[in-house]
Amino acid sequence: MAGRANIPANSSALIAIIADEDTVTGFLMAGVGNVDLRKKTNYLLVDNKTTVKQIEDAFKEFTAREDIAIVLISQYIANMIRFLVDSYNKPIPAILEIPSKDHPYDPANDSVLSRVKYLFSADSVASDRR
Amino acid sequence: MSGQSQRLNVVPTVTMLGVVKARLIGATRGHALLKKKSDALTVQFRAILKKIVATKESMGEAMRASSFSLAEAKYVAGDGVRHVVLQSVRSASLRVRSHQENVAGVKLPKFSHFVDPAGGASGGPSGASPSLTGLARGGQQVSACRTAHVKAIEVLVELASLQTSFLTLDEAIKTTNRRVNALENVVKPRLENTITYIKGELDELEREDFFRLKKIQGYKRREIERQMIEAKKFAEEQLAEDLALKRGISMGAATNILVGGGDKDDDIIF
């Protein structure tokens, strides 16, 4: 809630990414990538060799880190660890599911959008979308 | 569950009645205020909801544009560009700053992205060490790709702040509504029940007192009546005595004549 510890207003925070290679490359190009002194990165490159365990660990690590404000996660990867994403309910860091190039974006799978739909009648959301 | 258990355990006195009444007034005022807060939050919540849906749409577009520009850049600069990018990551030039916004006493975190001039080894637009990515060929496409991704980040950051606000507000509204309902359905009825209980109890006491007074009054009246009758009887006796004395014959003497004078009178044969 509002009383919880927040990131101080003047400090800068990072954006973490869990996505496929192309998406990660694009965002790194934009300059969100960060490697600290211990060679810890704020992004996870998911390819077909990456295990679900690795993704889970990265997700847990990113959501636990103090200096990360937003976690971007590709939707198809979020689907792999859906139980973790759905059970996560803290406001900071914010989890954002982003569409990836190879997988069509399905708004029904999004944890936040599904909550939006759960809270309000489906037609009011649908009418806003058009 | 209805009458007895739904009230506070208090001594039914006038002081307590005043205290409970003051508490009821406080609870009513608090309820009204919380209701207002809940309404304000709901208005904000709906506005955010609409914005989230709209931003989700624009996020799709921004992501499409950015991945398309990445494809362009890869086509022109060759597939090797990704390795260059992945290798040259040092410190983030594009960072997020968070500040708080206050809506009806609820602090909502808001994010805004900014370019950190100290970072930027991976080639931020205004990085201290400009990247050499795409120096050989396709530099324009690479920078276009970079711009597209920065734009996508802008949208994503906005979406993130909307989403955090959404979650925070959701929680806050739930809490506020719970409080409103608790006040309305638990605290207020309990106080009202207590007030009726105290009033009933006070009335009962008053009736008891009244009855007792009546009882005592009746007893006293009966006593006085009895004494009056006594006094009247005594007065009548007194009067008769007085009358007899005045005639010179005491009531005792009169009887004595009849009884004692018989032996002197000759006329009386028997």
Automatic annotation (TrEMBL), chain A:
Gene Ontology cellular component list: membrane; proton-transporting V-type ATPase, V1 domain
One Pfam short name: ATP-synt_F
UniProt keyword annotations, A-Z: Hydrogen ion transport, Ion transport, Transport
A molecular function (GO) term: proton-transporting ATPase activity, rotational mechanism
Family listed: Belongs to the V-ATPase F subunit family.
Function text: Subunit of the V1 complex of vacuolar(H+)-ATPase (V-ATPase), a multisubunit enzyme composed of a peripheral complex (V1) that hydrolyzes ATP and a membrane integral complex (V0) that translocates protons. V-ATPase is responsible for acidifying and maintaining the pH of intracellular compartments.
PANTHER family for this protein: V-TYPE PROTON ATPASE SUBUNIT F, VACUOLAR ATP SYNTHASE SUBUNIT F
NCBIfam families to which the protein is assigned, alphabetical: V_ATP_synt_F (TIGR01101)
Binding partners and assembly: V-ATPase is a heteromultimeric enzyme made up of two complexes: the ATP-hydrolytic V1 complex and the proton translocation V0 complex.
Protein name: V-type proton ATPase subunit F
Biological source species: Brachypodium distachyon (Purple false brome)
TrEMBL record, chain B:
Family membership noted in the UniProt record: Belongs to the V-ATPase D subunit family.
Alphabetical UniProt keywords: Ion transport, Transport
Database matches in PANTHER family: V-TYPE ATP SYNTHASE SUBUNIT D (PTHR11671)
Name of the protein: V-type proton ATPase subunit D
GO CC annotation: proton-transporting V-type ATPase complex; vacuolar membrane
GO molecular function, one term: proton-transporting ATPase activity, rotational mechanism
Pfam families in UniProt: ATP-synt_D
